[in-house]
Amino acid sequence: MKTVVMEFEKGGRFEISLDPNAPLTCKAFTDQLPHIGSVLHGRFSGEEFFFKMPLAVGAENKVAPKAGSVSFNSDPKWQAVCIYYGPNIKVSSPCNLFGEVKGDLAELEKIGLRIWQQGEEKIWMKIL
Predict the structure, then answer these.
(1) Peptide bond just before 76 cis, omega within 30 deg
(2) Sign of the alpha-carbon dihedral angle for 32, 37, 40, 43
(3) Which of 83, 89, 113, 118 is the most exposed, fewest CB within 10 Å of its CB?
């Protein structure tokens, strides 16, 4: 499986390992890389930030997220990649789990809190 690199405008770089249990979501996601987007903090889902990215996939590998999970919300109204950074997660229905952030999750949490407190910033996603 491919490895994806995620970098943030205000600092921070992580690798994401893709989950073989979500092959359709992984392919749809990697087909759109490289990608530059605007990452925002979730309002109702707890410790999560996201960026809009429409992918032509339905439900696949629906698993409740945990810190470090990378998921795709396949609801046609939302169509976003969601990255969870802490244990305080409140999702009404699980999204397509398709990756996991590798590295220092405490650093990922600092970035999540920065996005929550300071607002939108750019994110770059590319295949390693």
Answers:
(1) no
(2) negative
(3) 118
pTM of the model: 0.93
Q: Tokens for 16, please give them.
A: 């994401």
CA distance 40 to 50: 6
Would you say 101 and 70 are in contact if contact means Cβ atoms under 8 Å apart?
yes
Report CA-CA distances (Å) from 122 to 2, 6, 27: 23, 11, 23
d(CA 18, CA 110): 23
Q: Kindly report the CATH number that applies to the domain delimited by 3-127.
A: 2.40.100.20
Cβ pair 40, 51 in contact under 8 A: yes
In the predicted model, residues of the chain with pLDDT beneath 70 are: 1
- pLDDT (0 to 100) of residue 78: 84
Question: Token pair for residue 48?
Answer: 């999560």
Please identify which residue in the block is written with the tokens 């407190």.
117
Residue partners of 71: CB distance under 8 A and separation at least 6? 65, 81, 82, 83, 84, 94, 95, 96, 97, 98
> Do residues 81 and 107 make contact, with C-beta atoms less than 8 angstroms apart?
no
Q: Which helix (H) or strand (E) holds 32?
A: none
